[in-house]
Write a structure and sequence with these properties.
2 copies of one chain form a homodimer. By secondary structure, chain A is an alpha+beta fold. The first copy, chain A, has 5 helices and 7 strands; from the N terminus they run ααβααββββββα. In chain A, strand 2 and strand 3 (84-86) form a beta hairpin. In chain A, helix 2 crosses helix 3 (41-51) and helix 3 crosses helix 4 (57-69). The longest helix of chain A has 14 residues, at 4-17. Strand 6 of chain A pairs antiparallel with strand 5 (104-108) of chain B. Chain A binds a DNA duplex through helix 4.
Chain lengths: 163, 163
DNA sequence: GCACTTATTATGAGTGCTTCACAATAAGGC
DNA sequence: GCCTTATTGTGAAGCACTCATAATAAGTGC
């Protein structure tokens, strides 16, 4: 696995290069996102508080937004879910979400750089200059598929569900 | 353009076939979405109230959710924006949003049926059975591009902006 | 056409996620 | 170590949406 100290130093220099101060709150948030990819703000807060109990939810929101703007974090908003954050940035990868349990998996970008797809404009629309193409895959994960096979009486489908 | 009466009759029979009653509220919402594609619930409410002033916001939310579940409407959730609705369903088309003004354009599906893309799973992730691939294109529309050329002193960029 | 049953809508309050305004704190340059 | 200003904490507010319940009206049978 990655070396904690190395991560911290890399983050510190990245923060410096963006003119940001290196605070324990920012480092705690970055470490929490690193170790809990695809987590919502609330989950980041809980994880970061293990190292820094006095951290507040509002600080987490501020830090997450700022670091996302700086491209040090990436925000991802699945339908019917709060925003999720990850440290994997700059590779334009995509996401697959399970419509049954909400689990998120990374999917490599087929092309490897943005935009990875070129739109086919229909005749009535005005073309835009595309910068990014985000692909959201929706399906059923292996675990949920297995659960759906068994239950004849039990019927324990969707834990979070699509609502 | 489309014939209003024909639309109404088509919607009425579709509602019947789903076991729903044909109410003026549902027809007003459908007509409002038809004439204002990519509008949020609030916009649908405003449009529908021109025909049906006593319609309430809560009813619009209920009707939109129900019709979306029935696949008579499609819901689309751009980042930092409330959900948008459209009557174009069943063709798995995609969307392009302008990051400057928020304008939305339809983009035909590259392949024409869902899923239109097959993910390349990275070695650490557990593959899912994919049912839908939604592509979200983000870029700058022609109008905003034109605005960004001119202003040297004026600097009137982003009206809604990415925040 | 008229009453009746039940889906649908209106009313009003409430929830989750996120942001805002301002005061308290602390990072980094001198 | 001190000072300036970014950053964080505190408390409240906002938006989009949902929930619970009562009032209304669509569609059915007579």
């Amino acid at each position: 696995m990655a070396d904690h100290t190395a991560d911290q130093e890399a983050w510190a220099s990245a923060l410096h290069s963006h003119g940001r101060r290196v605070t324990k709150q920012r480092l705690a948030v970055l470490a929490a996102v690193q170790h809990n990819p695809h987590s919502p703000a609330e989950g980041i807060l809980a994880a970061a508080r293990k190292d820094l109990p006095e951290l507040t939810a509002q600080s987490v929101y501020v830090v997450l937004s700022d670091l996302t703007d700086l491209q040090m974090l990436r925000r991802f908003e699945p339908p019917h879910s709060p925003a999720l954050y990850e440290t994997r940035v700059g590779d334009n990868h995509h996401h697959a979400v399970c419509i049954s349990c909400g689990r998120v998996e990374d999917v490599d970008c087929a092309v490897g750089h943005a935009p990875c797809l070129t739109p086919h404009w229909d005749e009535h629309s005005k073309p835009m200059t595309i910068q990014i193409a985000d692909v959201l895959y929706q399906g059923i994960c292996q675990d949920c598929q297995a659960k759906q096979q068994l239950p004849t009486q039990t019927q324990v489908t969707h834990e979070i569900g699509e609502r």
